[in-house]
């Protein structure tokens, strides 16, 4: 038996001081002003640069990969502020063939390396030594991040700092990943002896995959983290939950029209 639950409005919550509401609104407004989103309306210019290790990167060779080009400089405080979330985004979507390339604007290698000693960055750092790439891709306001889909088409640019693990970024990144052609599974920790495990499964639009065998442990939950899941003919939205009982023979995970990223949490044997 499978049970599905979706988010509902909660009642009976404690009242909130009006000053808290005002402060929250001001904080939200500040966050909104922190960046600008601009649709990309022209063909993407070429980009071919070397990174700090001497490796050559050519955008034309990255067909089939979603790419974020982040233009930055060491003296740019908003650039530094968003780096941890960019790095977390790249790690999260590594199984999805998403690449984040950090394009440094006109700084010497020695200065960049000194900066990276203080603030380690596990992302490719490309050298735009003469600034020509920044001139072609940006209005030279930093940071600027250009989002490019798997077909090599630039979709939009984000000017200014953004939390790349937040809801705004998720809405921008999801469309870049919709052309997924393979199912990927990512284990979040080593399965326990009692059968407990946690995995993230990612599927392209309309794709179907068999879930784990419910009998291995005591069944499992499937939680929608991105996109949507089709279950019993219904589109299950973000944060919906399906409970798969251990009495089931098998359970199929089916992605909705925008693809699916879901947490599959197998609970321990009783």
How does this model look, in words?
There is one protein chain. This protein has 270 residues and is α+β, with helices and mostly antiparallel strands. It folds into two domains: 35-177, 3-Layer(aba) Sandwich (Glutaredoxin); 181-266, Jelly Rolls. It is 20% helix and 35% strand. The protein has five helices and 16 strands. The chain has helices at 18-33, 77-92, 109-118, 132-137, 167-173; strands at residues 2-5, 35-39, 48-50, 56-58, 66-72, 98-105, 125-128, 144-148, 154-160, 184-187, 197-203, 208-210, 220-231, 234-236, 241-244, 252-266. The strands form three sheets. Strands 1, 10, 11, 12, 13, 14, 15 and 16 form an eight-stranded antiparallel sheet that branches. A six-stranded mixed sheet has the order 2-9-8-5-6-7. It has a two-stranded antiparallel sheet with strand order 3-4. The chain is elongated and about 65 Å long.
Features:
Glutaredoxin, 16 strands, Jelly Rolls, 270 residues, 2 domains, alpha+beta, 8-stranded antiparallel β-sheet
Helix content: 10-25%
What is the N-to-C succession of helices and strands? Answer: EHEEEEHEHEHEEHEEEEEEE
Q: Strand tally, please?
A: 16
Q: Work out the strand percent.
A: 25-35%
Mean pLDDT, all residues: 86
Decide which structural class fits the backbone: alpha+beta
Distance between the termini: 18 Å
Number of discrete helical segments: 5
Unreliable residue runs: 7-16, 25-33
Largest sheet: 8 strands, antiparallel
CATH class of the largest domain: Alpha Beta
CATH superfamily of the largest domain: Glutaredoxin
Number of domains: 2
CATH architecture of the largest domain: 3-Layer(aba) Sandwich
- CATH fold naming of the largest domain: Glutaredoxin
The whole-angstrom Rg is 22 Å
